[in-house]
Write a structure and sequence with these properties.
With about 850 residues, the chain is α/β, with parallel strands linked by helices. The chain folds into five domains: about 5-140 and about 280-345, Response regulator (Rossmann fold, 3-Layer(aba) Sandwich); about 145-275 and about 355-400, Rossmann fold; about 420-515 and about 735-765, Periplasmic binding protein-like II (D-Maltodextrin-Binding Protein, domain 2, 3-Layer(aba) Sandwich), CATH 3.40.190; about 525-530 and about 640-725, D-Maltodextrin-Binding Protein, domain 2; about 540-635, Helix Hairpins (Orthogonal Bundle). It is about 45% helix and about 15% strand. It is built from 28 helices and 27 strands. Strand 16 (about 440-445) and strand 17 form a beta hairpin. Helix 19 crosses helix 20 (about 580-590), helix 19 (about 545-565) runs antiparallel to helix 21 (about 605-635) and helix 21 runs antiparallel to helix 28 (about 785-845). The longest helix is centred in the C-terminal third of the chain and has 62 residues, at about 785-845. The termini are far apart.
């Protein structure tokens, strides 16, 4: 080795077995940061891989390892030295993206295309297009961000703060983390960039004053340890705090000494999963511990981690390729490593004697006591499980894995946020001067100098707070300004929230965020009613549909025909000419609709049919009367103004509430003339103005309009369409972490029926009930009385059938009697004729003997 090389790389490690018996099969270079735990594990693992390869194949593999000290320029120089001076056929090991990209660019500028296997955990996709000879030899850790997001979702947290090391290696994963959290319904409220030169206490102090208590740490192990030590000193490793570490920290937790571990109690970590080496390769585990302890005796823990295993497998992969390709270099060796033995970019790492699990499997660990305890696994597209095998049961929630010890213990679930340290009790502004005191009623008691707060919106808020999974202290403070100014006070931090009949509109969203509405949304027009007689000459036909009228007439005629048939032999007046019988039939048909006519009926069959039909017609007539009465009543209550078009064309005056948003909507959206719009502060003022004609219509929000109509139901009515705006909600500052919990609690209040009970009590004191009518749905159809029609038709048909059968039977009996008599008469006649003939002959014999005597 040249003397200059020794000065340039004084800690360069050169390993070469004796070449007496074996020829050199390949030369590999390695660039590691031996000042870091990752670099130390990688160096030891590479040397073990080289020794195993030489021993198992009876070949000679030479390994040159250079310490870069984590400096990119030093790494680039090392790469040039290894290629130009040592003649390496491949380079292993840049463990950060900064070093890997610098080495690749340096080789590209010097026209070197030997394979470079990067052990960095975040290689951008474009890197392989720019440097085709650069191969990612470690599993991409971008998938771990999905695991972090799944953990956040499991516990119902919606906001997190990301603390990351300000380097290219860590910054590359932040976009993936942001996207993964957004898919799970969570957001990153702040990014905090750290560097080794930062005063961590200043950054943590700012975070401590905020509300969010869920922190995701994405940094190297040394900086993470400094962070946790500072956080512990500032009492940020206690109850209500959540700390989640990514793979760059968690995969090295096994190397932390006991004093540093005490600063991380309750930390939850995500790390790449791989089978424990002593369970699959006891030989590798023992060799590693022995060699690592001898070279780095100052380290307390000597177990290998994921970085050691990756370095071992990468070395074996290159060695295997060199065996098959011989001394061929460049493109041939690159293709061999990329296509056959190594598939690092796809996440499936297949080497000579080991297959690492795919990048989508991560292990969840919980730092408890002096070690990190396995808490389960997370697999992409499957979720959480306690084990990784064929019998594993998966769940979308981490809660199924059991209790976690969070900072501050004991076992409980932090809510993920807290009230600001400057405000222990929420100061909630309440509007004083609502249009109706049913929603918000603020009263002042001079004897106690206190205010009382009542009303529907106040009750809903109290019920909602009671459903929160934690105690929330608050106090109401009256506000005498308009509603928009109240919302601005929340934005200015003078109030922590605002509660009342505050309409949810777009212009207020630039100041605050709202909960889901707790009332119906909309804006309606209220106008006076006018008594109006109906000029519809055919209104009396409206209670029944056409088919109902036709069916009723048919059944009437049919029943009249049945009664006429049965009674015609008993009543002389039912006989006569055809015209007379037809008139009588029609009279029977309709007369039975109003009276039983029992004294005129002689047959029990006709009486039964008439009785059933009278029962049916009684129900139908009563229904007709009720329907017609309702129609006549509703016809008398018509709105004076039917639509806003009439108001505009007549330049009529309209009213709105003084403190509501309605004015801008009327002018900007509905395009009313501002001079035609007047404001009122009470419902009584609206009513008086509408009665006197001062205004032709009033525009009210739906909840207020319903109360107004309930109170003045005989005088006013809602008319025209409902404009979908507004709805009352509770206002909170933008970015508040309480909002999701409030929405969930409000949904609980609604689904449990409590909100419905409050709505019913809102108008319970009003005796007058709002009446709404739709003439299209008034008319009664045959389906309403189908059973009754079938009943009367069936009874009449049975009666007619019995009558016909009985008539035939009577006719048959009479015909039989007549036939018998005729036969008897005929027999008598025949007998009498026979006797007459005999008598005649006798007379003849006397008068004229047949054989007269001879004369």
């Amino acid at each position: 080795m040249a003397l200059s090389s020794l000065f340039l790389f004084p800690d360069k490690a050169v390993s070469m077995n004796s070449t007496a018996k074996n020829h050199v099969k390949g030369i590999i270079g390695a660039i590691v940061d031996s000042s870091s735990r990752k670099g130390q594990e990688a160096k030891v693992a590479m040397e073990i891989a080289r020794d195993d390869f030489n021993h198992q194949t009876n070949q000679t593999l030479i390994l040159h390892v250079i310490n870069s000290h984590g400096e990119t320029i030093r790494a680039a120089r090392a790469a040039k030295y290894l290629i130009n001076k040592e003649g390496v056929q491949a380079i292993l090991g840049p463990q950060t993206w900064e070093e890997a990209s610098t080495v690749a660019e340096s080789c590209s500028q010097n026209s070197h295309t030997i394979p470079i296997l990067s052990l960095a955990d975040a290689t951008p996709p474009w890197a392989t297009r720019r440097w085709p000879f650069l191969i990612q030899a470690s599993l991409s850790h971008h998938a771990q961000m999905k695991a972090v997001a799944a953990v956040v979702q499991s516990w119902g947290w919606h906001r997190v703060i990301v603390i990351y090391e300000d380097t290219d290696s860590t910054a590359n994963g932040l976009i993936h983390l942001s996207d993964a959290l957004r898919e799970k319904g969570a957001e990153i409220s702040h990014f905090v960039a750290l560097s080794p030169f930062n005063a961590l206490s200043d950054d943590l102090e700012k975070l401590k004053k905020g509300q969010c208590r869920v922190f995701v740490v994405h940094s190297s192990l040394p900086l993470a340890l400094r962070l946790f030590e500072t956080a512990k000193e500032m009492k940020m490793m206690e109850k209500d705090y959540v700390w989640i570490t990514t793979d760059s920290t968690t995969s090295l937790v096994h190397s932390i000494n006991h004093s540093s571990m005490s600063s991380m109690q309750g930390v939850l970590g995500i790390r790449s999963y791989f089978p424990e080496p002593w369970a699959h390769s006891q030989d590798f585990y023992l060799k590693f511990r022995k060699k690592f302890k001898s070279e780095y005796s100052e380290e307390e823990n000597h177990e290998p981690g994921i970085f050691a295993l990756q370095a071992y497998d990468a070395t074996r992969a290159v060695a295997a390729a060199l065996i098959q390709e011989g001394n061929r270099e460049g493109q041939h060796l690159l293709e061999k490593i990329s296509s056959s033995d190594f598939k690092g970019l796809s996440g499936n790492v297949k080497f000579v004697d080991r297959k690492l699990p795919p990048a989508q499997v991560f292990q969840i660990v919980n730092v408890i006591g002096r070690s990190d305890r396995e808490h389960g696994f997370w697999t992409d597209e499957k979720g959480f499980s306690e084990t990784i095998d064929e019998r594993a049961a998966y769940s979308p929630s981490m809660e199924k894995l059991g209790l976690v010890m969070w900072p501050g213990g004991p076992w409980y679930t932090p809510k993920g946020w807290t009230l600001p340290t400057m405000a222990k009790t929420l100061r909630i502004g309440v509007p004083n001067g609502s249009l109706t005191n049913r929603f918000v009623n603020v009263e002042y008691d001079p004897s106690t100098n206190n205010y009382s707060f009542k009303g529907f919106s106040i009750d809903v808020f109290k019920k909602t707070v009671n459903r929160l999974p934690y105690y929330l202290p608050y106090e109401f403070i009256p506000w005498g300004g308009n509603y928009t100014s109240l919302v601005e006070q929340v934005h200015l931090k003078n109030f922590d929230a605002a509660v009342g009949d505050i309409a949810i509109i777009y212009s207020r969203y630039k100041y605050v965020e709202f909960t889901h509405p707790h009332t119906e949304s909309g804006l309606v027009m209220v106008v006076p009613v006018q008594s109006q007689s109906s000029n519809n000459s055919w209104l009396f036909t409206k209670p029944f549909t056409k088919s109902m009228w036709v069916l009723t007439a048919v059944i009437n005629l049919y029943n009249g025909f049945v009664i006429w048939m049965i009674e015609r032999n008993h009543c002389p007046e039912l006989k006569g000419s055809i015209l007379n019988q037809l008139g009588t039939l029609l009279w029977f048909a309709f007369a039975t609709s109003f009276s039983l006519q029992g004294e005129m009926l002689h047959s029990n069959l006709s009486r039964i049919a008439t009785l059933v039909w009278l029962f049916v017609i009684l129900i139908i007539s009563q229904s007709y009367t009720a329907s017609l009465t309702s129609m006549l009543t509703v016809q008398g209550l018509q709105p004076k103004v039917a639509d806003i078009g009439t108001l505009k064309t007549s330049n009529a005056k309209i009213g709105y509430s003084t403190k509501s948003f309605v004015l801008n909507y009327l002018v900007d959206v509905l395009h009313f003339n501002r001079n035609d719009v007047k404001n009122y502060s009470t419902t009584e003022g609206y009513a008086q103005a509408l009665r006197t004609g001062e205004i032709a219509a009033a525009f009210l929000e739906v909840p207020v309009a319903k109360l107004f109509i309930a109170k003045y139901c005989k005088s006013f009515i809602m008319a025209g369409p409902t404009f979908r705006v507004g709805g009352y909600g509770f206002a909170f500052p933008k970015g508040t972490l309480m909002l999701p919990d409030m929405d969930e609690a409000l949904l609980n209040v609604s689904e449990s029926g409590v909100l419905r009970e409050l709505e019913n009590s809102l108008t319970a004191a009003e005796k007058c009930v709002e009446v709404e009518w739709d003439n299209k749905n008034v008319s009664l159809s045959p389906s309403t009385f189908l059973v009754l029609f079938i009943l009367t038709g069936s009874v009449s048909t049975v009666a007619l059938a019995i009558f016909v059968l009985r008539a035939k039977w009577e006719t048959g009996k009479i015909m039989f009697k007549h036939t018998t008599i005729r036969m008897l008469i005929l027999a008598v006649k025949i007998q009498l004729g026979h006797q007459k003939n005999r008598f005649s002959r006798r007379v003849s014999d006397i008068e004229c003997p047949r054989n007269p005597p001879n004369t």
